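tool_call predict_complex ligand=nicotinamide-adenine-dinucleotide
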Amino acid sequence: MSTIIIDGKDVSQRIREGLKAEVAELTAAGRTPGLAVVLVGEDPASQVYVGSKVRACEELGIYSQKWALPAETTQEELVELIHKLNADDRIHGILVQSPPPPHIDEEAVILNIDPRKDVDGFHPVNVAKLVLEEEDGFVPCTPLGCMELLKAYNIPTAGKHAVVIGRSMIVGKPMANLLVSKKANATVTIAHSRTADLPALCRTADIIVAAVGRPEMVKADFVKPGAVVLDVGINRIDDASRPRGYRIVGDVDYADVCDKCSAITPVPGGVGPMTIAMLMANTVKACRQLTC
Ligand code: NAD
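tool_result ok
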């Protein structure tokens, strides 16, 4: 069986090109979309993520503000900034890069973001809108990106059994909600760390979404021949042969699984590139909704 390798770089590039045209149109009408990215502390991975988000805005013509706050910033100071950004007409999307330092209560901070500007889709109002299938809410970027990949490759979901491995609020749960929605019509099972006999459950799946954070956990014996496998995982594993001393692998053992499935996302180059594209899409959506 020849396996389709789902090219997230290509799909995200096409989405970005479409967004660039939309941003130009909005800008010509005096409605330039704006995103504020807030980083607290000096976590190196977070700095890289924030840098890529700001660069993506620049490429598309989206106005951006980067707020790099010192690690000792208090909860009150952070909330004060969020309130300022909520009131700033140039800003349509606000995100606080995760994880903040331990003295910051992330959930409490998110509650202060105006839900209409919550382009990460983490505010309870947006969680509810996803469950209620209300179109004007914001859906977390990574699961939204997975749905776009399925769409781009015309992979049917209606009537299919999807097993989502992982129940986080960022990936697993919103992914399951998107798949079970009346738009996608899949039958969904959410698996997690306490699920009994995960390989047997996964073998009943037409679509597997792995969002676990365990390198190469999903093996060939998890996969029914012809299933579609979306690998959300981003894990570093030691590799002395690489200049940096590590390489990135997913939650799926790609080499083991690849020949058995009908389509699969590689890591890197699969789901990863979609996340920022969806953040840009959510920012443009927020701008349209706030300035119409
Ligand atoms: P998380 O740690 O919040 O959640 C992991 C989930 O996996 C939990 O719900 C847990 O119950 C489940 N789990 C743990 N061990 C398990 C096991 N042995 N069997 C079955 N389930 C198990 O992680 P997350 O934030 O959802 O991220 C998951 C992965 O996706 C990570 O590798 C992360 O780096 C990656 N990620 C990628 C992107 C992207 O842009 N591609 C975005 C977010 C997260």
